[in-house]
């Protein structure tokens, strides 16, 4: 790499000295500029970049000290190396004055050429290194700026992709739930009519079991997405942990019984209360029970133990199944992790259930740990959650009495859904319960029927042709349909969808497919309860 010559300014009021300095420094290959006075030196400094100045201390108009101070005050020349040449012996105070005015070195007369060249060479090389560093810094800053712009672009692309993924998952859930709803409704219609035919009974059980499994897979996928984005919202209430365990056992009982596992549940004698979302806490226990049933041979055993340990509720789920290898334990709660193989081979799932358990436990201020003595030696999962102090327990008089909450009276119902199978299957299911049901398949006709027939209950889909369910509900409320209970039954189940439903005037928000028992319970409520 060729070196650019450095400008060196030689300042002396005696021409002979200037010629002598020029002769001494010419072999360095630098650009030598001469000035015979301080004023001329300043003019040369304004013309070009000069990193090195060799000047005489004693000059008639401006002496070296004054010229050095002027040079150093200019921002452009604050890094200029000034070398003083003095023909008189300088005292320490004179040297100090020179350094204070900006000098970096001194050369005494008579000047030794080798010494002068060595000093100038050092400062010239320092200047070149400084220039290289500045150039590298500029290149680095340019690269950093470019990299930052690229990262910002990638970040924006990731945000866009994440938003599109969320939109895709929402619509995927909607599209998967729509066909699931009529399947489950049709199974509910078939159940009382199957009779004693064992083949039909078996087919019905398969349909209900597999539809339920697919529903849980869809829910788990969407829950993982919500928790990862931090958009999941808990609906906490004060509850007894025993009700959570009972609900989880009820939901998992079919798979446990199908595989003929022995289930033992041990609960404390006194209620153990906690603050939490009952649906999400049930999901924690149900996922652990489901895994315990899945990952062991038929005719196995599952133990569920609940106890209070100080300020914590401890839920332990143990099984005698396939166990967990030691190397798999640290990652057993990672998303899509497959720590074991189910006894049925094809039923391993997506590897998201335990990840959900951990994330939901953490959202409740708790944690979960996994234990196993190794492959084939069973597994143990321990969930710890904050318990409520006794002072925070609800008074018995405030506890709801389920027996007096439901009336079970037949009602006038309107079903509005553009999916004909969903609407018709739900209507048939409701008619079996003794209700009078009408059907509309778009927003405008649904709104018109609601205003004409004045139903007591409206099951209303959101994604309707014409006008959507939010607008149908809003207009119905505005036009006097205030007493009717309007329930959103939709494939869109994110928290933002629930918020929009509440703002539009819905009383409740159900995500397809909805269990017949859940709909019937809502139908039998004595008074509406806005979502």
Q: What are the key terms here?
A:
single chain; 531 residues; alpha/beta; Rossmann fold; Heat Shock Protein 90; 3 domains; 5-stranded parallel beta sheet; 14 helices; 17 strands
Give me the CATH superfamily of the largest domain: Response regulator
Sheet with most strands: 5 strands, parallel
The largest beta-sheet arranges its strands as 2-1-3-4-5
The CATH topology of the largest domain turns out to be: Rossmann fold
The pLDDT mean sits at 82
**CA distance, first residue to last residue:** 76 Å
Task: Give the % helix.
Answer: 40-55%
What count of structural domains? Answer: 3
Alpha carbon gyration radius:
42 Å
Strand percentage = 15-25%
Shape: elongated
Top-tier CATH class of the largest domain: Alpha Beta
Q: Give the count of helical stretches.
A: 14
Q: Spans with pLDDT under 50 lasting ≥5 residues? A: 343-347, 391-407, 527-531
- How would you classify the helix and strand content by structural class? alpha/beta
Question: If you had to describe this structure to a student in words, what would you say it looks like?
Answer:
This protein is α/β, with parallel strands linked by helices and 531 residues long. The chain has 3 domains: 7-111, Rossmann fold, CATH 3.40.50; 161-232 and 407-531, Rossmann fold, CATH 3.40.50.2300; 237-391, 2-Layer Sandwich (Heat Shock Protein 90), CATH 3.30.565. It has 14 helices and 17 strands. It has helices at residues 15-25, 38-47, 64-73, 92-101, 113-190, 198-229, 241-258, 278-294, 353-363, 420-432, 443-453, 469-478, 495-504, 516-523; strands at residues 7-11, 31-35, 52-56, 81-86, 103-108, 237-240, 262-266, 273-276, 301-309, 312-319, 367-371, 379-386, 412-416, 436-440, 457-460, 485-490, 508-511. The strands form 4 sheets. The chain has a 5-stranded parallel β-sheet, sandwiched between helices. Strands 7-9-10-12-11 form a 5-stranded mixed β-sheet, with helices on one face. Strand 15, helix 12 and strand 16 form a beta-alpha-beta unit. Helix 5 (113-190) packs across helix 10, helix 6 (198-229) packs across helix 9 and helix 8 (278-294) runs antiparallel to helix 9. Residues 343-347, 391-407 and 527-531 have low confidence and may be disordered.
């Amino acid at each position: 790499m060729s070196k650019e010559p450095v400008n060196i300014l030689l300042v002396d009021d005696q021409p002979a000295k200037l010629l002598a300095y020029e002769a001494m420094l010419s072999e360095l290959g630098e650009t030598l500029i001469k000035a015979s006075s301080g004023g001329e030196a300043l003019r040369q400094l304004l013309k070009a970049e000069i990193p090195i100045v060799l000047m005489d201390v004693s000059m008639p108009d401006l002496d070296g000290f004054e010229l050095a101070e002027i040079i150093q005050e200019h921002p452009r020349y604050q890094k200029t190396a000034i070398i003083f040449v003095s023909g008189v012996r300088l005292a320490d105070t004179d040297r100090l004055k020179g350094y204070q005015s900006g000098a970096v070195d001194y050369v005494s007369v008579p000047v030794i050429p080798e010494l002068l060249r060595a000093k100038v060479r050092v400062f010239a090389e320092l200047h070149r290194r400084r220039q290289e560093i500045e150039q590298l810094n500029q290149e680095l800053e340019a690269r950093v700026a470019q990299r930052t712009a690229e990262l910002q672009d990638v970040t924006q692309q990731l945000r866009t992709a994440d938003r599109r993924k969320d939109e895709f998952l929402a619509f995927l859930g909607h599209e998967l739930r729509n066909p699931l709803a009529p399947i489950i409704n049709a199974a509910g219609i078939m159940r009382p009519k199957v009779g004693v035919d064992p083949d039909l009974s078996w087919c019905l059980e398969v349909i209900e079991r597999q539809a339920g499994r697919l529903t849980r897979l869809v829910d788990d996928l969407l829950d993982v997405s919500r928790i990862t984005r931090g958009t999941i919202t808990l609906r906490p209430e004060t509850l007894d942990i025993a009700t959570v365990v009972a609900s989880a056992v009820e939901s998992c009982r079919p798979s446990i019984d199908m595989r003929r596992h022995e289930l033992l549940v041990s609960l404390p004698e006194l209620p153990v209360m906690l603050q939490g979302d009952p649906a999400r806490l049930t999901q924690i226990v149900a996922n652990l029970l489901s895994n315990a049933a899945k990952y062991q041979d038929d005719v196995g055993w599952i133990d569920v133990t609940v106890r209070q340990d100080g300020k914590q509720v401890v839920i332990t789920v143990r099984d005698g199944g396939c166990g967990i290898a030691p190397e798999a334990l640290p990652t057993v709660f990672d998303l899509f992790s497959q720590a074991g193989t189910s006894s049925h081979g094809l039923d391993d799932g997506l590897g998201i259930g335990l990840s959900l358990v951990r994330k939901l436990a953490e959202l409740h201020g708790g944690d979960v740990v996994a234990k196993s003595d190794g492959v084939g030696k069973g597994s143990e999962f321990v969930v710890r959650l904050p318990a409520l102090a006794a002072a925070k327990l609800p008074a018995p008089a405030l506890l709801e009495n389920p027996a007096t909450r439901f009336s079970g009276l037949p009602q006038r119902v309107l079903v509005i859904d553009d999916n004909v199978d969903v609407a018709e299957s739900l209507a048939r299911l409701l008619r079996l319960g003794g209700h009078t049901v009408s059907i509309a398949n778009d927003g405008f006709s649904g709104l018109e029927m609601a205003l004409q027939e004045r139903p007591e209950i409206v099951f209303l889909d959101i994604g309707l042709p014409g006008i959507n369910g939010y607008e149908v509900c809003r207009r119905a409320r505005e036009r006097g349909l205030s007493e009717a209970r309007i329930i959103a039954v939709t494939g869109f189940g994110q928290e933002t969808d629930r918020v929009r439903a509440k703002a539009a005037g819905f009383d409740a928000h159900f995500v397809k497919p909805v269990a017949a028992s859940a709909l019937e319970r809502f139908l039998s409520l004595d008074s509406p309860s806005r979502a």
